[in-house]
From TrEMBL:
It comes from the Bacteria. Pfam families: PhoD (PF09423), PhoD_N (PF16655). Residues 192-520 form the PhoD-like phosphatase metallophosphatase domain. It comes from Kytococcus schroeteri. CDD domains: MPP_PhoD (cd07389). This is Alkaline phosphatase.
Amino acid sequence: MRTPAQTSHALTVRSAATHSSTSAASVTSADPTAVGPTHTPATAPSRRLVLASGAAAAVLGASPLLTGTAAAGDAYPFRLGVASGDPTPDGVVLWTRIAPDPVAADGLGGLTASTRTTVEWELATDETFRTIVRRGSVTTDSSVGHSVHIELSGLRPDAWYAYRFRVGSHVSPVGRTRTAPAPTSDRPARIGVVSCAQWEHGFFTAYRHLADEAPDMVLHLGDYIYEHGPGGYPVKSGVARRMVGAEIHTLADYRRRHALYKTDADLQALHATAPWVVVFDDHEIDNDWAAEYHEVFGRTPAFLERRAAGFRAYWENMPLRRTSVPTADGIHLYRRLTWGRMATFHMLDTRQYRSDQTGWVGPVPATYDTRRTMLGSTQEAWLDEGLRSSGARWDVLGQQVMVAQYDMMAGPGFMTNQDAWDGYVAAKDRLLTSIERSGARNPLVLTGDVHESFASDLWRTTDSGRTTIASELVTTSVTSGGDSKDSAFTGDADNPHMRYHETTRGYLRLDLAADALTGTFRAVDRVSTMGGAVRTDATFRLSDGVRGLQNA
Ligand SMILES: [Fe+2]
């Protein structure tokens, strides 16, 4: 908003499934002072995981089965933590990145272009790693930014696991992850929804509070990083912490910026708590980019190169599957995940295939041009088919920019944000038609981008009346915009379909059950200093089979 990839050789995984307790379990009596990590990261995850990490490290360090060779020297290599993502009923992706010196200017995290690192990994059913169900070893190098992506399959559905990595004598923090429920399951879910974390605007306290709520899964709707240099995006509450490095343009820059973010303890804690499902928005590349167009300079070789660097670093630093490895055609991010019969998550990409913006504000005549697209025709057809065939109780569209019409001009006059769906009116109409005709039982749109919370119903108004097609919950920013302020929204005559609008920082918690979906707007009171408190600002409910938000 305004306010060359190749991986295969480096990612060959030699996996040894054990399916049972291994000899690692037999060494739990090993002297923990003689083994284990040589460094406990200051940025370790939650207390529970720190404790588990210490105990687990003792076990792993003593295991005769693990004989890793360190290529990273003596410095602790896991300073970026661990992550997991994209759960299916039988698998999940495990992630880490080797970076003993995270913000080294060349983006290589303290390693060199020729460094090769052997990384061992383990997956267990418990955080003490008593019962290890998978283990393996992978070699990583600079062709993938020294990242590690382990794609697991053949796991039990609806199951929690613990995982960790090792390089030489160094053991990573322990992460918790899970598989999705089986296709026939009616398992409820708690989903965290977050977006927009500008580093200088504040501390990632919202991530920490969300981790404490033990979500089953986290949806990140974009602006995971911001591209600015120091002071490049000023806000009233000032600079909470200084950005490292100037505005990012090169692959080295993007790798370094992702590494800076991943050193954050609160971000690491949330990654280690549950699998994430991520999609980017604009700031992972550059403000308000659209397809191959830079916001100011349009389509230039320099921007295409910059975009490719941003795509590449995004894949390297996120727990994404091989299907999202960038190619000459871009990065494939839109995808679908299921949660038993309870929910289908349609994760969309509203940046890479859209028509260029018509400007900042509108409407202008081009706003209504039926040839203009937000999703691109291929993704549009994919979404339409996915909504028709879903069969889930809740169909959740996870995407970036606001769908609900938002007249930003109080009183007479009409002014809309041309970067949002309001700037693509025909495409929005096709989206609502697709949802309406699909037979989706309970559709819900989730949105980020605007650094404010909204709860709206999506109406189609015709001469014969008004139909509620779906509802939209917009999660506010984690930090972007700086310290919270309450706007005391009491309704707006210009936007009667909006039930709630607030300017506090925070996150959205979704609780999905058979009879209802509950969306809880959680607000942190400040971000410019650490330790902000969290509270519930508002709660809305959707009842099964009933269109329109209700107060809960
Ligand atoms: Fe943002």
